[in-house]
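Late entry, zinc ion complex.
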Amino acid sequence: MAFWGTNPEEQSKSGQAPAHPGGIEEAYHELVKSKGRAPGIDLAIRLSDMILEHAVTERASDVHIESQGANLRVRFRVDGILQDVLNSPKNSDIPLTQRIRVLAGFDPEPPTSFRNEEGRFQKMLAGRAIQIRVSSFPTVNGEKLVLRVLDRQQLGLDLEQLGMDQESLAMIKKLIRNPYGIFFITGSTGSGKTTSLYAMLKDINSPMINIISLEDPVEYRLEGINQAQISAKTGFTWAEGLRTILRQDPDVIMVGEIRDYETAEISLRSALTGHLLFTTIHTISAPSIIERLFEMGVPPFLIASSMLGAMSQRLVRKICPQCAQKAAPPAEAMVNEFIKNMDPAEGKAIKDLILKPGAEYKVEKGCPACRNTGYLGRTGIFELMIMNEEVRKQVLDHSPTDMIRRTAIQTGKLRTLLMDGILKARGGVTTLSEVIRVTATMV
Ligand SMILES: [Zn+2]
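Prediction complete; structure with ligand written out below:
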């Protein structure tokens, strides 16, 4: 397979030699050939170990195991994109899914009627302890297992590692040192919101303050922070959890997500009464957080007086340094086409930013080091909105998102996701096409 057909010289250069030099597909066929010499379960253990080892060295965030019909398919999500690593006729003498089910603490055989199965296990992989969270899903063709790889080393829990420029970083550091107020993060699933929240908590963590978090689920244990997990089943809801936390003498509170009026109201009120809160909310941009709070029924004065700011984020793939090629800026006609449906002032700013001389645009090519994708690793792009007098006035007037957004851009306090992405493309960190792909829902 071309995808795994890395030549050994290239591998040693990139320093990422996989656990089996020939890849999972080849190793699987070797295992199938050797069956009869070892019990099936031993082969399944070897196969699952090898898949997990590969997943960690290849920096996969998720492993999909689809044991469906006559086929066994394994896919890795690397840098946000799924890739086949094994797609072969299934060998029923190698019970791979049973092995994973046992590791996850499930019964070896999947339940006959639908039941939500979630489990986790820890394993030494690539020389470190890695947590794996397992979810099982019964499809009409058979069971599908998804394994989330929780690798602290990939997390990069320092604010400096998130990919923010110096100016935004300085603003964030100042903002999270406010004694009270609330700061929102928004972004789609897998946009790195949790990592940013953890990085902020870690940045301000000290023995002198009491930090409590409410999460669903608690993904990583952080030293010195009191983390609690929401459980709807036992009545420990976001709102109930928050009320309990407030009796625990907190200085800083992290609320994993605000999705209802009650949680929003308690959060914003406690931000007014001497607590610093960090939370996430589901919207597409930083300014639209305000509209979402309006929709929930939160009164404008409460938002205007408690909100410190908001950040929206996405992850873009970084261009592979080994095969990146220089590129000319896009043609003006293309840029005009791209901005034609935007707000005129914003469109002009985008156009100027793309075409301003001095850019070091790159285009992806593909080489063994990046598995021919042209990209290696990811970094964040950020839209940071700081609450100022002008924006506050708009909030009190119950203005629509467009107006708040325009005010925030005009008063110089908002650089949009697209603008931040273009700056990263100009610097040769990623490509313009990757930025446009990731921010497509924004324009
Ligand atoms: Zn490459």
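The longest strand covers residues 307-319. Will revisit in the morning.
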